[in-house]
Design the sequence.
């Protein structure tokens, strides 16, 4: 692991300005080889799907496999949707878990945390800055899947007006507006998980532990969400609306799931944000 | 000194969230005050809503005592696309649907599945269905409204010629409502229930309660919007079951005219379009076919048009489909018990996993009873006798078995 976090950071120089801190955090995050490896892995998902479909395309729409897979041969723009459907349950939570779990525990592990904390008020700001970095990664990760999917789809397959789930068609511009909304929806969906990761990261000085715990929680929540016996619990799970992004592909757009999802994620941010504050502000930072 | 106060927000935030969600549902429970209406007035009120334009979201839940096939389906997929599975899935699984209505001529229903959608569009002359999972469209040309009306009017005139006293019978909605109530009175108790709130609107409740002890149906309740008379929910309660056996209700409703473009439908490129023949076309094909092959092939039931027999009256009516129907449909009839593969319409292209899943489901649902096999749900029972008859009714399996013996 490169020990660049503290050295490259202009500590103190912009201490009064939160923005400088956020920018430096983002710079550190995206200067890491690990971040780019994860983004590369995410970009591989749509590429893999598109190439496999192109190579084995014998025109038989079996109706099996992930949603939208059959539509790819007719319209390459569907690669983004298939890739998102595949990435949301596993790959996106995994990468978010790595980034969010590393936020505080990573600095503690490198022994750089105490340098970042000069005043007690600095702790809140550090939490906010770390969270902003994780949230930005959510957006970048989602956009990576969507944009790579659209590009590789356009390269390998014909492109044209897109059929929505309701059977209506939209032009390419309208479709890209929806894709952007969709990326926003998925980003919002992942914010709750990022907050959980931030909290777990304040509990430990072993970043790998926090990463694994965060990713495992995402899996546990999805398993609980698949059990009909726990139906009363489902609206409270942060994974509940993860596949609801399809509501943006209906005509007219079903905004309720977007709003419900945002409210739910806001609740998770509030609960785990305050928990992280409680833990981090009372913690004795020794490293 | 003590830094523990910093944990305070972490305690307050969950408390606020819980309080907000509890108070939110408490507000919804409040019972509205409305001017009293009789059952007859409510029926007239519903009749006035036929021309209304509105849109809304419906939630359907059912608790029929059948195995839930939704559990065995992967996200984004469905338990097979053959008609049997689709019908079972529509009945047993929970659904959310959006409804757009503009008068009696234009309607659009969208069943919102996870990562998929099924649409039904009806505009003046055309009816379309679209399934996004299979990219299949069906299209039917609706019979001309005027000719249907003319036909009905001609029939009425015929009747009037037969019974001249009908001429003087006025038929306003009020009169129809009175006739309807008089007609169902002996078997059913029609009452006005407690007012409720449905989709944020105050609503009357009209309850139908069968007096017949033989039926499985406990009650049918309908919530009627207090301003427009549009039915907002329907709940069917089964006897001896606390949760409604079937419930469909608006969760949100908007009484402004929906966008007219919603009722236009053009099949998307690449979709498979199936045309459903009109009545005339169907008759023409049938005539042509019977001309070509006069004698029906040996082995087919000759009385293909045998009328189903109706046993009993009112809520415990049992419909008996004559012998041969079950085998005609491919259902097993005991004697020459065919494999389960004959039960469903299995096409060569179908995925074996789909077929196996649907078969297991049917095998699980059917139970052996005296003289055949039965499917018992909390509302309806179906009996397939060993000699190939099918009996259906909103009664217990025992009643069906008894009826099959007579």
Sequence:
């Amino acid at each position: 692991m490169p020990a660049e976090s503290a050295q490259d950071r202009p500590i103190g120089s912009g201490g009064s300005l939160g923005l400088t801190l956020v920018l430096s955090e983002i710079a550190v995050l995206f200067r890491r080889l690990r971040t780019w490896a994860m983004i590369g892995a995410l970009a591989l998902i749509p590429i893999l799907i598109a190439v496999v479909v192109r190579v084995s395309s014998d025109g038989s729409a079996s109706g099996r496999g992930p949603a939208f897979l059959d539509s790819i041969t007719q319209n390459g723009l569907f690669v983004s949707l298939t890739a998102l459907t595949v990435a949301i349950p596993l790959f996106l939570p995994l990468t978010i878990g790595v980034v969010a779990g590393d936020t505080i525990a990573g600095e503690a592990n490198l022994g750089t945390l105490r340098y970042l904390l000069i005043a007690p008020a600095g702790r809140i700001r550090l939490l906010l800055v770390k969270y902003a970095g994780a949230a930005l990664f959510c957006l970048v990760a989602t956009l990576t899947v969507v944009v790579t999917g659209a590009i590789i789809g356009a390269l390998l397959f014909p492109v044209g007006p897109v059929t929505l789930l309701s059977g209506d068609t939209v032009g390419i511009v309208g479709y890209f507006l929806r894709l952007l909304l969709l990326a926003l929806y998925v980003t919002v969906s992942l914010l709750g998980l990022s907050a959980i990761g931030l909290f777990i990261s304040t509990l430990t000085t072993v970043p790998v532990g926090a990463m694994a715990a965060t990713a495992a929680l995402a899996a546990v929540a999805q398993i609980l969400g698949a059990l009909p016996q726990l139906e009363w619990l489902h609206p409270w799970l942060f994974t509940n609306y993860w596949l609801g992004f399809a509501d943006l592909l209906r005509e007219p757009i079903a905004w309720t799931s977007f709003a419900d999802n945002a409210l739910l994620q806001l609740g998770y941010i509030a609960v785990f944000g305050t928990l992280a504050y409680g833990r981090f502000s009372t913690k004795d930072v020794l490293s | 000194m003590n830094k523990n106060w910093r944990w305070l927000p972490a305690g307050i935030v969950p408390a606020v969230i819980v309080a907000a969600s509890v108070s939110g549902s408490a507000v919804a429970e409040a019972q509205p005050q409305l001017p009293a209406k009789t059952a007859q007035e409510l029926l007239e009120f519903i009749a006035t809503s036929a021309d209304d334009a509105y849109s809304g979201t419906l939630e359907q839940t059912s608790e029929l005592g059948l195995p839930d096939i939704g559990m065995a389906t992967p996200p984004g997929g469905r338990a097979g696309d053959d008609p049997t599975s689709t019908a079972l899935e529509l009945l047993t699984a929970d659904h959310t649907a959006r409804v757009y209505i503009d008068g009696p001529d234009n309607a659009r229903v969208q069943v919102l599945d996870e990562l998929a959608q099924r649409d039904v569009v009806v505009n003046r002359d055309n009816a379309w269905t679209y399934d996004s999972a299979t990219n299949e469209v069906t299209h039917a040309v609706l019979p001309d409204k005027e000719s249907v009306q003319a036909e009905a009017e001609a029939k009425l005139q015929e009747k009037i010629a037969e019974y001249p006293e009908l001429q003087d019978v006025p038929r306003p909605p009020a009169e129809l409502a009175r006739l309807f109530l008089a007609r169902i009175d002996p078997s059913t108790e029609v009452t006005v229930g407690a007012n409720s709130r449905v989709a944020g609107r105050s609503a009357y409740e009209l309850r139908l309660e069968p007096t017949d002890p033989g039926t499985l149906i406990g009650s049918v309740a309908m919530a009627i919007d207090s301003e427009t008379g549009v039915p907002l929910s329907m709940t069917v309660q089964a006897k001896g079951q606390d949760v409604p056996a079937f419930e469909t209700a608006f969760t949100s409703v908007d009484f402004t005219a929906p966008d007219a473009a919603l009722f236009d439908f053009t099949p998307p490129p690449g979709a498979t379009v199936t045309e459903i023949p009109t009545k005339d076309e169907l008759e023409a094909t049938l005539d042509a076919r019977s001309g070509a092959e006069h004698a029906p092939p040996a082995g087919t039931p000759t009385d293909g048009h045998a009328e189903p027999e109706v046993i009993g009256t009112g809520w415990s009516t049992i419909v008996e489909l004559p012998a041969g129907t079950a085998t005609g449909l491919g259902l097993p009839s005991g004697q020459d018990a065919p494999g389960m593969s004959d039960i469903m319409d299995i096409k060569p292209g179908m995925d074996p996993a789909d077929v196996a899943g649907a078969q297991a489901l049917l095998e699980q649902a059917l139970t052996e009873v005296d003289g055949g096999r039965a499917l018992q749900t909390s509302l309806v029972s179906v009996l397939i006798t060993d000699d190939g008859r099918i009996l259906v009714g909103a009664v217990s399996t025992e009643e069906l078995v008894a009826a099959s013996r007579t």
Remarks:
- Chain A has one domain: 18-282.
- The beta strands of chain A are 162-163, 169-170.
